[in-house]
Amino acid sequence: MTTTPAPRALLQAMFQAAIEAAQPSHCIPPHLPAAPKGRLIVIGAGKASAAMAQAVEQHWPGPLSGLVVTRYGYAVPCERIEIVEASHPVPDAAGMQAAQRMLELVANLQADDTVLCLISGGGSSLLALPLDGISLEDKQALNRALLASGATIGEMNCVRRHLSAIKGGRLAAACHPAQVITLAISDVPGDKLGDIASGPTVGDATTCEDALAIVRRYGMDLPDSLRAVLESGRGESVKPDDPRLARTRTTLIATPQMALEAAAAVARVAGVTPYILGDSLEGEARDVGKVMAGIALQTVMRGQPFPAPCVLLSGGETTVTVRGNGRGGRNVEFLLALGIALDGHEGIHALAGDTDGVDGQEDIAGAVLAPDTLQRAWDLAIRPRDSLDNNDGHGFFQALGDSVITGPTLTNVNDFRAILIT
Hints:
Protein name: Glycerate kinase
Keywords: ATP-binding, Kinase, Nucleotide-binding, Transferase
CATH topology of the largest domain: Rossmann fold
Radius of gyration: 22 Å
Shape: globular
Strand order of the largest sheet: 3-2-1-4-5-6
Low-confidence stretches: none
Strand content: 15-25%
Domain MOFRL-associated: 11-231
Number of helices: 16
GO molecular function: ATP binding; glycerate kinase activity
Helix content: 25-40%
GO cellular component, one term: cytoplasm
Order of helices and strands: HHEHEEHEHHHHEHHEHEHEHEEHHHEE
């Protein structure tokens, strides 16, 4: 007879399974290429890139060298591949210098050489190299504007690609005529290759005009230097049919769907039926929270669309339009909106977290929600709606002791949401 774990323990076990399924130590070895006739150069960027590099070193018998850049605190020991740490989500000089060195590293390669590029979420900020005429300060201002705008990750990365000297296929073009093999861990809705770290090794069909339209759509106030690059067309990216990309290929080695399936397996063992609602849900985090609450309440009260006990799993990347000055992230914003809409209904528990361990700009992955969450907040004189209006999800859940803190997970397959209905 199966004994179902306590709701919080089960939710945390599912979250941990999702993270574990995307660990580079599992995902890298099956996808390593054959040894080239020439050199193997390893490059990469992202929150998982150092762990990916370590897995390559541990399973590659021949000579190699390289450079990858990861987030501060996400480095792991490597012997032959240099690991550089830089800032995320707002770029810094360390990331810019690493990007410049990476381009220098792949210059003058030969056709017999192979470049193994390790890409994961976070690479857009970590691999920051502005086009000529754009300062690092301008790129930092751009990232802050994008993060606060409410734009989707696809829209944000379209703008980034057209203001970069390394994204939007430019890194792969710099490797020509060498073969370029990219192993990618997806953190974007739909697993769109051009959006993972803004596609440094992937041809880009979007244009400067598309980027300008996004800037106008969200009313972003760009520095003059950035607007001039877009308006002139000087920031045009490398297109998919560019001959310099003829010897490139990309393989997705871990995705949000894989992580959700791992979590679903944990639920089944516990005797709870999992339903995956989607691996690429987008929209305002608080709006997604309201919709999910409606589905959960219909399940509890009507047995539709699913019978209880069950767990509703979803992934993707919601957005937050920042209006307050609280401490927040998209997962805790979702969870707080969900809790307000559920209004303490019995038998519904939830967890929402970012699989990289960082929700927003703090080293807090997310939080858990229980039927008594709102009452415990009121007992502390915390008004849930005020916290939501102030984008203060982290402040809210931390005061209750309900934050989920994982530390650096060394991977990133986007957001994880689980609503457990007992």
